[in-house]
Amino acid sequence: MIKRVFLLVYDSFGIGELPDAAQYGDQGSNTLASVAKSSEFKLPTLTSLGLFNIDGVDVGQPVLTARGAFGRMAEKSQGKDTTTGHWEMAGIISEKPMPTYPNGFPQDIIESLEEATGRKFLCNKPYSGTQVIVDYGRRHMETASPILYTSADSVMQIAAHEDIVMLEELYEICKKARKIMVGENAVGRIIARPFVGDFPNFTRTSNRQDFSVLPPKKTMLDYLTEEGLDTPSVGKIFDIFAGKGISQSVSALNNADAMAKTMRMLETDFCGLCFINLVDFDALYGHRNDVDGYAKALAKADESLADFIADMGEKDLLLLTADHGCDPGTPSTDHSREYVPILAYGPALKENINLGTRQSFADIAATVLDIFGIENDLPGQSFWNEIK
What is the CATH architecture of 4-96+214-387? Predict the structure, then answer.
């Protein structure tokens, strides 16, 4: 009945704090409620799909009859980062959080990096990615030492000016760091953060590249590919899974580019799952506490989503969700531990189905594999019978 599933992730679009949010310092976080206060907040397409009909959502106006199914999902894994969230969608429950470095990386790691790369490193602290190049960019240009920093998430980020450290060398530095950050230091991602410009007007470029830790178990993507189904991806999905289980990767410069390329996927004759991430909500607005920017980006994506839905075929299914929160209305600039929406729509699906509160993001993996009739031992509860 269903030939193509499009799994669209609105990166960081949380809809309210989880019961354990206080353990993560995120009590009161609600990304949706914060952006709903903006005059730029206009989401007719998501409204029609049932966003404001979801249990626990107390902003916006619910519709009498949602076009599809709607609900919210709790994260069962320990953590609130991109990798953990996407892995859970694909069927991996992370029993312990990935390592973080609130005081910077230990000296033995720094020494290993310096020995492997032949370069010294600056900073080595948790930092805002935009502020760190302002504060350390001039010294970097004087010394050619890359800027090493982290955040509240399980990441090692390495920034360098494209005229000082060429892109290929920056990527090689990150690959070497990936080999060093293993075992108890296996951070979710090593991120290359190139920038350009002159002090103090440095700007990051779109040449970012992520080097993720390999998923430790089989995921939904592996099961699909083993059955000969297609698993194209758009955006940073390939990086998040270190390419494992991805049949085709299409890069994207921003949300608009990702949606345009996802629209082109509708013109492609494939059978399987297209996995898409829209990163701008998180990277450009959530982490920068830009409420209006976040709301405006949602409104633009909503327009593209309307076009996408209009072009969907009878055998297509859209699943729209998020990987965590990143509330731009709180003092924190980091991810937040929140419920995420799950919206399902397809021309052949039931309308106005309340999926309630799902206990794990892994329900997505269970549902996708159920759709294609693939037996598996992944966690999660399929909701396919409720919506088909």
Answer: 3-Layer(aba) Sandwich (3.40)
